[in-house]
Amino acid sequence: MAMSEVYVHGVTEAGARAVIEGAGARAVADGALAAIVTDASSETRAADLMRRHWQVLEAVAATATVVPVRFGTAMADEAAVAAEFLAPRSDLLLSQLASFEGKVQLTVKGSYDETSLLRSVVDGSPAIARLRERVRGLPEAAGHYERIRLGELVAAEVEQVRVRDGNRLHERLDGLALATSREPATGLHGAVNSAFLVERARIAEFRRAVDAVAEELDGRVDLRLLGPLPPYSFVAEEAPAWV
C-alpha cells in the first residue's frame, strides 16, 4: 500500500475554510491561521502534484489572502501541519498575511509576433536593411559570414526593442502597483515577463491599463494578463512560509 503525506500549499486565515474546501482542499487550523492542504500518495506523479498545487492556490487566492508555500512541502499528517508548521511560525505568518491583505499578484507575459517584430527591426535599422539586401543576392557559401553577422545584428536589435517595450510597459503599469518584479523574457519571441502586486480594488483598472499598453505597442506584442494570483513573486525566499 502506498504511503500518503499531507501536502501544504499555502496559508490563509482560519475563517476561509469554506473557500479552501471550495478549491478542493482542506483547512488545517491553528488559532487564526489555516494551512491549505491536500493528500497525495507516494505514487502520485510530480507533474500532477505541481498542477494541483497551482490550481488550489489560485482558486483560494481568487477571493482570500494567501501566502503561498514552496511546492513539495509535505508533512506526515494534519497534526504535524498544525504543531510543526503553523504553530512555530504563527507570529510571522500572521504578519505576512497582514502585509498581503487585500493584495494580489497580476502577472503580465508578452510574446512577439515574429513577422511584425522582424519588420520593425529592419525598418528601424538601415544597417540591417542594407546587409539583408546584400545577403539575399549572395550564394549560400559566399554569404556565410554575412549571414552570421546579420543574425548578430538582428539579435542585438531585438534585445534593444525588448528593453524599450518593457520599459514602456512598466512606465504605464508601475504606478498602479504596490511592488513589481521583472523576470527575464526568454527566447527570441519573449517580450515581457513581469509581476505586479496590486490592490484587489484596482484589478479592473490594471486590466484596462494593460489593454492600453498593448495598443501602444502597435500589435507587435501579444500581452496576456494572469491573475489574480497569490503573491508568488513577492514572498521573500527567507520567509517562514517557504521553509
Written account of the structure:
This protein is an alpha+beta fold. The chain folds into two domains: 4-99, no CATH class; 105-126 and 155-234, Alpha-Beta Plaits (2-Layer Sandwich). Helix content is 44%, strand content 25%. It has helices at 17-22, 46-61, 78-86, 90-100, 114-124, 126-136, 144-173, 203-216; strands at residues 4-13, 26-30, 33-41, 67-68, 74-75, 103-112, 179-182, 190-199, 221-229. β7 and β8 (190-199) form a beta hairpin. α5 (114-124) packs across α6, α5 (114-124) crosses α7 and α7 runs antiparallel to α8 (203-216). The longest helix is centred in the middle third of the chain and has 30 residues, at 144-173. It is elongated. The mean pLDDT is 86.
CATH class of the largest domain: Alpha Beta
Number of domains in the coordinates? 2
Low-confidence stretches: none
> What is the CATH topology descriptor of the largest domain?
Alpha-Beta Plaits
Q: Quickly count the helices.
A: 8
Structure characteristics:
alpha+beta; five-stranded antiparallel beta sheet; four-stranded antiparallel beta sheet; 243 residues
Short description:
The protein is of the alpha+beta class. The chain contains eight helices and nine strands. 27% of the residues are buried.
